[in-house]
Amino acid sequence: MKACFERCDEDLSKFWLTLAFSVLTWVSIYWFSRAGPTASLRIYYEVERSGGWQATYHRLPSAVLVGISLFPKELIIFPKTWSQTLGNVVFIKKHNAGGHFAAYEKPNELVTDLREMFGKKGPGYKVVKGYTGYDASRVHAKL
């Protein structure tokens, strides 16, 4: 029984150390970024100032291509059909894991979605004039 408690204590110390490093990483990303610690709040300020989320979504220009990645642990999960009301939705992909911080939790899945949307066979290919979109042959590093 003593060995079990020692093992649990060891696992808990690893947990707390990992948690401490995660917190320090997140604080550093926000605090030391060029945009500053309030950058992540800007979108909420802009949306509320312009009439709320519903008003903001309905003002999206129809020419803007919208891609959606659905993660099951998101804070609010809307029916998939509601996403079609956001504008010109050309890409939707549902994932098995991840949540509100998908870029941190599931970066490979999110990058894959971006590559699928903006890749040569994707609906967002050549969306920016003068650029050809994502080209896998030019990528040297793997995630």
Structural notes for this entry:
With 143 residues, the protein is mainly alpha-helical. The protein folds into two domains: 1-59; 60-138, no CATH class. It is built from five helices and two strands, in the order αααββαα. The protein has helices at 2-32, 42-49, 53-57, 102-105, 107-118; strands at 65-70, 88-94. Strands 1-2 form a two-stranded parallel sheet. It is globular and about 50 Å long.
Any descriptors?
globular, disordered N terminus, 143 residues, mainly alpha, single chain, two-stranded parallel ribbon, 2 strands, 2 domains
Enumerate the strands of the largest sheet in spatial order, edge to edge or round the barrel: 1-2
Please report the total strand number as a whole number.
Answer: 2
Rg over CA atoms, rounded to whole Å, is 20 Å
Give the domain tally: 2
* CA-based shape: globular
Specify the number of helices: 5
Task: State the end-to-end distance.
Answer: 42 Å
| Structural class assignment | mainly alpha
Summarize model confidence as the mean pLDDT: 76
Order of helices and strands: HHHEEHH
Q: Residue ranges: pLDDT <50 for 5 or more in a row?
A: 1-8
**What helical percentage do the residues reach?**
40-55%
Strand content: 5-15%
Let me know the largest β-sheet. 2 strands, parallel
Structure, briefly:
The chain contains five helices and two strands. It starts with a helix and ends in a 25-residue tail after the last helix.
Furnish the topology, listing elements before pairings.
Layout: H1 2-32, H2 42-49, H3 53-57, E1 65-70, E2 88-94, H4 102-105, H5 107-118
Parallel strand pairs: 1-2
